[in-house]
Amino acid sequence: MSVAEPLDTVLITGASSGIGATYADRFAQRGHPLVLVARNAARLQELAARLEREYRVKADVLAADLTSSTERAKVEQRLRDDDSIGILVNNAGVGGGSVLAQASPEVVQGMIELNVTAPSRLVAALLPRLLARGHGSIINIASALAIAPELFGGAYAASKSYVLTYTLALHKQVAEHGLRVQCVLPGVTRTEIWDQIGGLDAIPAQMIMEVDEMVDAALSGYDQGEVITIPSLPDIEEWNRFDEARRRMAPELSRNVAADRYKSDIPEDA
């Protein structure tokens, strides 16, 4: 009788609370060993102990501030060296709602480090191993604001647009090599990130999704093989039409002549 191969270890960033902690719970339920990454070591230890107790899975803690290149390097090294890690959940992120004219450059830079630089570097650290073995998964948590930046002030939406575009490019490059890539675009989700930017009191209740609901929907999309998952979108054909419209423009986006509307007759007496 053949022995089943062990399930891939899942490394989850931003795992100390909210979406990341819920992903940890769900993957532990499925029997996956875990590597939990966040700044708050005490919270991580508490979560790891609970998951090991309830689900009998191994849960390692790797405390790191992903905005610090030195601390981020520890996570990158783990991804390069630990052959058991086959799934990466890039969840760590920070919000920023200040209008661009008033935003502190330092705050925006820190957000870009966490929302853009960190996931890019972690994928780069893991990808060569996944490609070499021909299977594995990368789940990137973006935001619905990636396709609706007008709904929220500041550079946050732009950082999440990067995550969406990066995931689409990554999928195109790695799908034929057996790797799975998913980008999740949640709407407003009840997490601690909102405490940093004024809370949820001003947002209608029907727009706020609970974390369990969001993650369970995202994992259902993952199980169905979706590349883009928008948990609250009732009809996936709305996304498909949006994506198709974008693709139809592609042949016209780079040509050797400018569009006629940008050309005008030069007056004879000029």
From TrEMBL:
PROSITE patterns: ADH_SHORT (PS00061). CDD domains: SDR_c. The keyword Repeat does not apply. Keywords: Oxidoreductase. InterPro entries: NAD(P)-bd_dom_sf, Sc_DH/Rdtase_CS, SDR_fam. Belongs to the short-chain dehydrogenases/reductases (SDR) family. This is SDR family oxidoreductase. It comes from Dyella kyungheensis. The lineage of its organism: Bacteria, Pseudomonadati, Pseudomonadota, Gammaproteobacteria, Lysobacterales.
